[in-house]
Amino acid sequence: MDQSTELLGAFPVPDTGGEYALIPLVDENDNPVKLAFDGVTTIRLTAPESENNLDLNYLSFLLVVDVLESVTLINPVLSANGFEFSFATMASRQYIVEFNETLENGNWTEIETINGDGSLLSFTDPDTPANQRFYRVRIE
């Protein structure tokens, strides 16, 4: 059986100060790499040599299958500051917060684009109207 090697991407490992972090496999344009396994393909993950200052005692590779492409709003609350909520993010992904005054039309308005960093991030809309407003978060 012939075998060939193809570079799919890299895990650029930032200094996290000793904290665990999700670091996705990205291509040369910093886009997340998605793999499709066909029963024949094998993935090989390698780490740099120790002289590259990477503490190999704390390096783990995880294969994430069927990543959920949805956002759950956590602790939504209307306060004196406006409508606030948090949501979990993935590094290298963008989250677009949008609103609509009604669900009867598809005219969603972008409020803010948030760059994911693998942590729980918060959003506040200080211009919340007195009657109603619907929110959604899209992932790009």
Record keyword descriptors for this entry:
about 140 residues; mainly beta; Immunoglobulin-like; 2 domains; three-stranded antiparallel beta sheet; elongated
Determine the oligomeric state from the structure: single chain
Shape: elongated
What gap, in angstroms, lies between the N and C termini? Answer: 39 Å
Q: What low-confidence regions span 5 or more consecutive residues with pLDDT below 50?
A: none
Tally of contiguous helical segments? 0
Mean pLDDT across residues: 77
Most strands sheet: 3 strands, antiparallel
As a percent range, the share of helical residues equals under 10%
Order of helices and strands: EEEEEE
> For the CA atoms, what is the radius of gyration?
20 Å
Order of the strands making up the biggest sheet: 1-2-5
Q: How many structural units, i.e. domains?
A: 2
DSSP strand count? 6
Strand-residue proportion? 25-35%
Sheet/helix structural class = mainly beta
Structure description:
By secondary structure, the protein is an all-beta fold. It has 2 domains: 66 residues, no CATH class; 66 residues, Immunoglobulin-like (Sandwich). The chain is built from no helices and 6 strands. The chain has a 3-stranded antiparallel sheet, with no helix packed on it. The chain has a 3-stranded antiparallel sheet with strand order 4-3-6, with no helix packed on it. A hairpin with an 8-residue loop joins strand 3 and strand 4. The protein is elongated, with a radius of gyration of 20 Å. The relative contact order is 0.18. The model has no long low-confidence stretch (mean pLDDT 77).
